[in-house]
Amino acid sequence: MSHGIIWLAIGLVAQGMFSLRFLVQWIASERAGRSVVPVAFWYLSLLGGGSLLAYAIHRLDPVFILGQSLGFLIYGRNLFLVYAERARQGQTSGAKPSTNQQRVRIDPRPVLSVDGQPRLDPMDARAGNGVTVVPPHDGLDDLAVAQQP
After folding, report:
1. Is residue 37 part of a domain?
2. Over the stretch 109-138, which tens digit does the pLDDT of each residue have?
3. Is residue 66 domain-shared with residue 122, that is, in the same domain?
């Protein structure tokens, strides 16, 4: 296999990874019912952008190099911001709900009683039912709810 074909394959795979990020973002947004940017988007951006940067350097294309260099820095910075926010919230990168937690979707509409007056949702921590709402780990509208002992 020639050197040129190998670099062409690297460029095509890199562009595929870079393009896949939009599919990932679209699926996450459809699932959430709103526009979201999942962490996988930034990883695909970083991997695809880094690979495209290597391809651009190989081709000695200054326009392509400049564009991918700036993007590479931005994708890395966004990943840093995601993990810095998680650290401030006391989360870890691989955090999953423990066995005493369940995933629930919180409906933003107020819960009304029979007389039409707003009332506390039974999942609301203020209702005194021993439930604590913790931030989501995946950036979607789901919340992990932990039962307190």
Report:
1. yes
2. 555 555 655 554 444 444 444 444 444 444
3. no
Q: What is the pLDDT of residues 8-34, one digit of tens each?
A: 999 999 999 999 999 999 999 999 999
Indicate the burial class of 13 (C-beta count within 10 angstroms; 0-12, 13-18, 19 or more).
middle
CA angle 26, 49, 83 (to 5 degrees): 70
- Report the alpha-carbon distance of residue 75 to residue 45 in Å, rounded: 6
Percent over 90 (pLDDT), the chain: 54
Q: Letter for the amino acid at 93?
A: S
Q: Angle formed by the axes of helices 39-59 and 3-32, to 10°?
A: 160
Q: How many CB atoms lie within 10 A of CB 136?
A: 15
Domain boundary among 88, 112, 128: 88
Q: How confident is the model at residue 89 (pLDDT cuts 50, 70, 90)?
A: confident
